[in-house]
Structures are given as C-alpha cells and as structure tokens.
Design goal:
It is built from ten helices and 13 strands. It is of the alpha/beta class. It folds into three domains: 66 residues; 119 residues, 3-Layer(aba) Sandwich (D-Maltodextrin-Binding Protein, domain 2), CATH 3.40.190.10; 101 residues, 3-Layer(aba) Sandwich (D-Maltodextrin-Binding Protein, domain 2), CATH 3.40.190. Strands 3, 4, 5, 6, 7 and 13 form a six-stranded mixed beta sheet that branches. A five-stranded mixed beta sheet has the order 10-9-11-8-12, with helices on both faces. A two-stranded antiparallel sheet has the order 1-2.
C-alpha cells in the first residue's frame, strides 16, 4: 500500500494548514479501499464456507424436527380421542412419542371405514388402530406396526351391592345387559351368539347413558371399557345430572373379556422405528404415566 506524504499548505494569513492535497488524499483512499477489499475477500471465503456449513446443518436438523406426520385416527371416543380439543389418552401418547422423535403431528379424524382409503391414497402417513387390524389387506400398502401404545379393556360392570356372579360370557345370558354400540361386531363371536339369544340385551351409542342407567338400576350389567365408563362417570359427577342418582355406589368389574391392544400402523419403516424410540423415551422419563393419570383414575 502506498502511504502518501503530507504536503503543507499555507493560508492567506500565512498560518500553516494540515490538510492533505486533494490528489494525494484520493490515492490514499483508493489504496485503503483495495486493501480492505483484499482482506474481505480472504476472510469472506472462509466465513462464507463456515456460514454455509452452519446453514446446511440447521436446514438438515430443522427439516427433521419440522417433518410433520399425518396420523389417521377415528372419531371421538373419550377419554382416548377427544376431537373438539385435539386431545385424549391415545392422541397425547402418539403426539408425545412423535415429538420425542423430533416430529410434529397432524391428526386427521376420520370414520373407521375411511381410514384405509386415506392411507391407501397416501393422505395419511399412519393409522391408529387395534393391533389385530389388517390395514395392509384393506389398503393394499405395506404396513409396519408400532409397539403397543395402550390397551383398551372391556369389562362386565355391575353394582357391588347386587352381588351378581359373572365369571364367563355365558353368565351374561340371563341378565339385563347394556353394551356399547356394535359390541356384537367388535367382541367375539361367542359374545355375539349369547347376546343374540338374550332378549334383555341392548346397545347404546351414548355411553354416558350406560353409566346413568346402571346407577339408576335400569340395567344389571354394562359392557364397556373401564376407562371410558369411569371417564363418563366423572363427567356426570361434575354436572347436575348426578343430583338424583347416587354415583358413589361401589362398582365391580368382571374381567371376562380379553384386552384390546392399540398400535400405530405406518407406511414407513423408518417412521415406525422412530416412533417406537419416542414411545420408549416417554415411558422411561415418566411422561407416559403422567398422560395416563391425567384423564381418569382406574383404581376405584
């Protein structure tokens, strides 16, 4: 770089001035500009490479975190699925498992018959369903099943004071039985046969009415999942509908039905594996248990 010499100039008063001559000043500024351009280019090359690497890492990491998984799930069955506020036991377990694996989630609420159709058309990435459900057969797509997310458990539920003895399905044959809607389709053929032969067997779509009818003595036995029954019981206790019925009478849960485990059926082996890892994480850190306890207490 050229360092220009200073040239003294004198004013009319004869006093010495420290201004640079215009020509020399321009040369110095030009040289300084070239120097800084050179330095900037040298540093800029490394800075640009570094920033590009950082940006690439962030983009890759951000893509993994932001990858949204679309989950097909049935309509509301509280406390497992509560559509109006996008919550519920099953919903939160799936959401938390995917979040632990670095994924966002969007729940697509569908009638059961639409689930395999939407999965076949790639409109959902996975479907929450019973473990035994053959989604691959109904959709024509390969399926990877996740680990068990939770298990539904149906019982024959009675009032303890009535002293009913129910040790098998056959013991339901001579009693007033009120089951959930389409129970004869979802439960075993043996149950369907016994229900069909029982003139006092009926079904209800509104499971809150099951609770009220059992406590009011209008039926002897309710067939329902324990968590569903107790969730509706708690909703009634929190309302004025319990004013004319004693809802604190002890219950007896007769375990005559097998459990119904639930899984998430994925179209991607990778997503399924990542979901399983996330599920294992929330079970290990205690979040899974906190979710289960948040909705209903089953130890009554």
């Amino acid at each position: 770089m050229i360092i220009a010499a200073g040239v003294w100039k004198y004013g009319k008063s004869g006093e010495r001035s420290t201004q640079w001559c215009d020509a020399e000043k321009n040369v110095q500024l030009l040289d300084a500009f070239h120097f800084f351009v050179h330095i900037n280019r040298m540093l800029g090359e490394y800075i640009t490479r570094f920033l590009s690497l950082v940006l690439l890492v962030l983009m890759m990491g951000g893509a993994a975190i932001a990858e949204e998984v679309k989950v097909g799930i049935g309509f509301s069955i509280p406390p497992y699925v509560i559509k109006n506020n996008n919550s519920g036991l099953e919903v939160e377990i799936i959401r938390s498992s995917l979040a632990a694996a670095g994924h966002a989630v969007q729940f697509i609420y569908l009638p059961n018959l639409r689930l395999p159709v939407e999965f076949a058309q790639n409109n959902v990435d996975c479907v929450a369903a019973n473990a035994s459900y053959d989604l691959a057969n109904d959709s024509g797509r390969p399926v990877s099943r996740s680990d068990e997310t939770l298990s539904l458990q149906n019982y024959a539920i009675t009032l303890s004071r009535n002293g009913l003895v129910i040790n098998s399905l056959q013991d339901l044959g001579d009693k007033q039985v009120l089951a959930f809607n389409n129970a004869v389709k979802y439960l075993s053929p043996t149950f369907a046969a016994i229900a069909g032969a029982n003139p006092h067997y009926s079904e209800l779509a509104d499971q809150s009415l099951q609770v009220r009818m059992l406590y009011s003595g209008r039926t002897q036995v309710v067939v329902a999942d324990k968590r569903i029954f107790l969730w509706w019981r708690q909703q009634i206790l929190n309302s004025n509908l319990a004013d004319d019925v004693d809802m604190l009478v002890p219950l007896k849960f007769h375990a005559i039905f097998p459990p119904s485990p639930r899984r998430v059926h994925f179209g991607s082996k990778r997503l399924c594996s990542e979901f399983n890892n996330g599920l294992a994480t929330i079970k290990k850190n205690g979040l899974y248990d906190r979710i289960m306890e948040r909705y209903v207490k089953t130890d009554i």
